[in-house]
UniProtKB/TrEMBL annotation:
Keywords: Aminotransferase, Transferase. It holds the Pfam family Chorismate_bind. It is an enzyme of class 2 (transferase). InterPro entries: ADC_synthase (IPR005801), Anth_synth_I-like (IPR019999), Chorismate_C (IPR015890). One of its GO terms (molecular function) is 4-amino-4-deoxychorismate synthase activity. It comes from Methylacidimicrobium tartarophylax. This is Para-aminobenzoate synthetase component I. It comes from the Bacteria. PANTHER family: AMINOBENZOATE/ANTHRANILATE SYNTHASE, AMINODEOXYCHORISMATE SYNTHASE COMPONENT 1.
Length: 375
């Protein structure tokens, strides 16, 4: 694939706006075991450039460990890249068929997901794990313009982690609300999300309070917070890791979430690439204990996750970095659109309710698809 076809933007998470990259100088690909190749590419340029950054690496790491990064000697900053000329010249006006969203295909419908939840609970009862995040994928046979579809997604919600990136097989369109990692100087932060409640029915204050007082949701978030605190403890200076906020409620288009903020100061020898791969995969999308939960979900889920619950973002040559958790996202290939959704499973989980939670999380993404097809 020619680098001339590359285009993407990723959120700055704190500087305001987005970094926009076109036609990278080079693309670096590999698997988790080859992460030193990415580190070498970063170190070849490290120490150059101001903050906010003027060049660096931008790309994705899949849940399964496959990475793909463009190397940009210079990129642009924009507050709304979808309004600018590079976006407009790629956007098409061809209207898709059909005009209505057809039923999705999935290897994990209600029956299969409920069975998967109950099997996961057997692992919990046996003491293997305390929490595991299970996911399912939905697919549609559709040929779409990813640029126009992303505009429909933007109309549904505008979370801080929204982004748009070229992938190995197509495009990633993200409306993610979750910050995986942010590095500013030597300070590092992660904001895991756990806990979900529909926005319908109650007032905002009542819904937030209901979610914050839910013992199951708080227990999930506490376990994930401990996992992330441990991850940062492996790469941060002694006694610098702290929980800044716990169980803060955030409002989105169709639901509420709880999140924590965990912060620390990186050890002198830890660079951003090392920090990234030391913390992958994220605790909020695997479980606790993380390593065993990842093994169990790989046994229970019928197919690899791919980009879903991986991360996308940038590492600047100045050393700053920000990565978004790849959730609430659409993946567009040549004639396929897909999305994945998941739910955290504990011993107290109701399997049917967990399935309904995945449907709630898919709502805004499916609404964007319907709006796109309706024109």
């Amino acid at each position: 694939m020619s680098t001339e076809s590359e285009y993407g933007f990723t959120p700055l998470w704190g500087w305001g706006g987005f970094l926009v990259g076109e036609a990278p100088d080079e693309i670096v690909r590999g698997h988790r075991e080859e992460w030193e190749r990415l580190r070498t590419a970063y170190l070849a340029h490290a120490g150059s450039g101001p903050s906010p950054p003027s060049g660096g690496l931008m790309g994705t790491v899949s849940f399964d460990g496959d990475f793909r990064f463009g190397i940009y000697r210079r990129w642009q900053k924009s507050h709304a890249p979808w309004l600018e000329e590079p976006w407009r010249r790629r956007r098409t006006n061809v209207h898709p068929l059909p005009r209505r969203l057809p039923p999705a295909s999935s290897r994990t419908g209600r029956k299969e997901f409920v069975a998967m939840v109950r099997e996961a609970q057997e692992y919990i009862r046996s003491g293997d794990i305390y929490l595991v995040n299970l996911a399912r994928r939905l697919r549609w046979k559709l040929s779409v313009d990813p640029f126009r579809l992303w505009e429909m997604l933007l109309a549904q919600d505008r979370p801080a982690g929204r982004g748009f990136l070229r992938t190995e097989s197509g495009w990633l369109l993200s409306a993610s609300p979750e910050l995986f990692l942010r590095i500013r100087g030597r300070r590092i932060e992660t904001r895991p999300i756990k806990g979900t409640l529909s926005r319908s029915g109650e007032s905002g204050a009542d819904s937030a309070l209901t979610l914050q007082r839910n013992p199951k949701e708080r227990a999930e978030l506490l376990m994930v917070t401990d996992v992330e605190r441990n991850d940062l403890g492996q790469i941060c200076r002694f006694a610098t890791v702290r929980v800044g906020r716990f169980a803060a409620a955030t409002r989105h288009a169709h639901l509420w979430h709880l999140h924590s903020s965990i912060e620390g100061v990186l050890r002198p020898e830890i660079d951003p690439v090392t920090a990234l791969f030391a913390c992958l995969p994220g605790g909020s999308i695997t479980g606790a204990p993380k390593r065993r939960a990842a093994e169990i979900l790989s046994l229970l889920e019928p197919e690899p996750r791919g980009l879903y619950t991986g991360v996308f973002g940038y590492i600047s040559f100045s050393g700053d970095a920000a990565f978004t958790m790849t959730i609430r996202s659409l993946e567009v290939a040549s004639e396929t659109v897909s999305l994945s959704v998941g739910s955290g499973i504990t011993i107290d989980s109701n399997a049917e309710a967990e399935y309904e939670e995945t449907c709630l999380k898919a709502k805004a993404l499916e609404k964007a698809l319907r709006a796109y097809l309706a024109g």
